[in-house]
Amino acid sequence: MRFSSSYMWAALIASITIIWMFSDNLINIFVGEQEATIEDITEDRTNKKFENNSLVVSAIEVKNESVPIYFRSSGITKSIFDIQIIARREGLIENIYATDGSFINKGDIIINLDKGTLEQELNAAKALLLAEENELDFIKRKFQEDGSYSKKIKSARAALSRSKKDFESSKRLKEKGITTELEFEEKYVNYKSAEVVLSELLEISKNQEISRFSANIQKINTDIAKLEKQLELTEIRSPRSGWIENIRVDIGEFVTNGKNIARLIGLDELIVEMQIPQSNISNVKLGDQVEINFNKEQYYSGKVYKIGAIANESTRTFNIEVRIQNSDATLRAGMSAEAQIQIARVDAFKISPAHLNTDNNGNLYVKAIGLDDKVEERAINIVKTRDNFAYISGLTNKTIVLTTGQAFLQSGDTPTYKISGDGS
After folding, report:
1. Beta bridge partners of 96
2. How far is CA 10 from CA 7, 15, 95, 380, in A?
3. Torsion (CA) 165, 166, 172, 175 in degrees, nearest 10
4. How do residues 130-177 score in pLDDT, each as one tens digit?
5. Measured between alpha carbons, how far is residue 239 from residues 142, 258, 309, 333, 383 in Å?
């Protein structure tokens, strides 16, 4: 005997209907024999007071901890220094030792310029200096007690004495008519000449002679220093250790004094420049710790070392700068960064966001045990979130906060609760 498929479907639907009609009684019997749990409760609790003490709600005891409050901002990295390397004398470029993007140490030669005749001029100046120094030494010896100058003075005095005697003798002989007028005039001229020689020697000053030669030596030393400086400037060296960029010249090119040669960038330390709104700038202090990450892969820590005093006119934000170490040169200037600055610390408690509630105005609260062990709504604020937890403030230590099952409770209910170890 065969049954059509329509009869079979009708029988199946009838069976399901009968089972559904008796299901409520079966569930009530089961609930009466077993302790209810949060997951078993499906009854709509709207506008009803909770009176079933057989339901055990999970709870946690508040133990606040000091939690840092961060302000988050984006920033851009800048090099700790950015120097334009310039030529300080003109000349023809003979060699270029650095390449774009390479690291150079302080004092390394970047470019060599043609020296021209500088070396020959320097050698000539040194030779002249030696001659003047020898002459000065001679002058000093000359004016010593047994020096040539003293001897010349003695000789001049003796010559003057002799010529004077000859003149006076010739004068007496002339008066007696023994000598001629010509002989007398000759003796007179010799006498006056001896006087002039002695006078000139006596007018010579030791200090004047030494000063004249000393001045010459000082001028020559100045010339030598200038020539040595010009020779030094033919080697364009790195003033600091850093990364060379934008070499703008070639071998064989003639450069003038002041010509821009290259750019030197410091990456051992980097500056992260950020914009802080005027509403938060008063909370930022010099030395504040800043946590910085790049693409959420590279994490660094630094400190605020500069806070702008004038707001940006268009954004009303203030520039702050943070220094971070970059000794391995992993980072480069111009990179984007995400940063957070600790601006305060508050007492807060860690809890799962699933246990938080909002009222009709969007204000957050939790359900806690209040007076007479009844449910109360306590307003809270979220301080920060981390992983799957929220840190909330506004609760005192040892406050009992209801967690799993609290959604079925209303203010004024007297629940049965069990304190668990954490806020999950």
Report:
1. 111
2. 5, 9, 101, 57
3. -150
4. 999 998 887 777 666 565 666 677 777 777 788 888 878 877 877 777
5. 50, 16, 31, 20, 49
